[in-house]
Amino acid sequence: MLKRIHVQDVRLGMYIHGFVGSWLDHPFWRNRFLLEDPQDLARIRASAVREVWIDVSKGADVAPDATVTAQVADEQAVAQQTPAEPPPERDLAPTPQEVELKHAYRLLNSARNAVASMFQDARMGRAIDQAVAQAVASDIADSVTRNGGALISLARLKTADDYTYLHSVAVCALMVALARQLGLSDAQARAAGFGGLLHDIGKVDIPLEILNKPGKLTDEEFAIVREHPRRGWQRLRDAGIDDAVALDVCLHHHKRVDGRGYPEGLAGDALSLMARMGAVCDVYDAITSNRPYKAGWDPAESLKRMASWQGQFDERVFQAFVRSLGIYPVGSLVLLSNGRLAVVVEQSPRSLLKPVVKTVFSTRSGERVVPERIDLSAPGCTVQVVQREDPARWKIPDLDEIWSGIPGLRREYADTRA
């Protein structure tokens, strides 16, 4: 018997069958579990969720004086029951960058926690909750649809400790943006995002001392790492996830078009479009992110290096990927023709070479300047980008605060001039 009750009537020993509301409103990755931890009970009551479903056949029943808002016989009845309030329509209207950044910041933190819990549950042998994973991927896709640069740019600022979890979130967002650049349908873009979110689930089978090793891996350790695509593919199958795109991206995101990479087998056109997309998105986020053994590279420099790696990426997919991010992705530091350094804050639909920037430093006076927003593609604008600059050389500590408008954003920059 399933009962829908108010969160204040939830108590230890109950079996939580589901939360009434968005996954963003509650602090748990999984929807179904036996409530045994007092801290979990406190988190439920402190969340934005006001009602939950409990299964009294698997856990404690409600107290006689509890508020029971709905009582049904089985799960099918829950699925068919009309909710108290209709779900809100998805807001997919284009959103200004500064507006979407605030929403994306909250979404990024929630998605990070969701993926961390998903990985932890998988390590403990619990099944992946496909419905929640789909909801996370869908909300990420919505954010990218409203504004392609906001969440993608924020996701790049992950710490080494957060890498494993936020990498999945970032690849999800990058896959959606790339799919839209390639002209794929909305359904295909969402499928690409779902595959990106789950592509690295096989890493739960890599010992943490190998996954987080600060130095070079031994041959034996790298052999273990190379198994994570196969293990992830099997985990998805075992969880009943038969989504063809997710399985394909999980298994083949480390394959190169020239046939190298792992697992052995496919090459060139034998690799699906989604697999080739996954390979580009996975590498870009990896090299621009802080890792236990190195700081992330500047985004513009990363695209330049990726373009030089012959045989690794599908050329058409990579060119579309560059267009989806811009020649100078958000967060890139550039030198302008007026002698000022500026950080890219947004792409211009008129020109890949003329983004919207904020000035931060005068190379002529050697002093900081009050940030000025300049659309380099605007009619009559005579200022141009001369070249990209290495942030490590200039050491501007609040660079990420300037482009994002979010206080406290910081990252360490690697010297990419080598």
UniProtKB/TrEMBL annotation:
Record carries keyword rRNA-binding: no
Enzyme class of the recorded protein, top EC level: hydrolase
Molecular function via GO: cyclic-guanylate-specific phosphodiesterase activity
Pfam families, A to Z: DUF3391, HD_5
Domain HD-GYP: 142-337
Keyword annotations of the record: Hydrolase
Annotated transmembrane regions: none
EC number: 3.1.4.52
UniProt-recorded name of the protein: Cyclic di-GMP phosphodiesterase response regulator RpfG
Organism: Tepidimonas thermarum
GN (gene name): rpfG_1
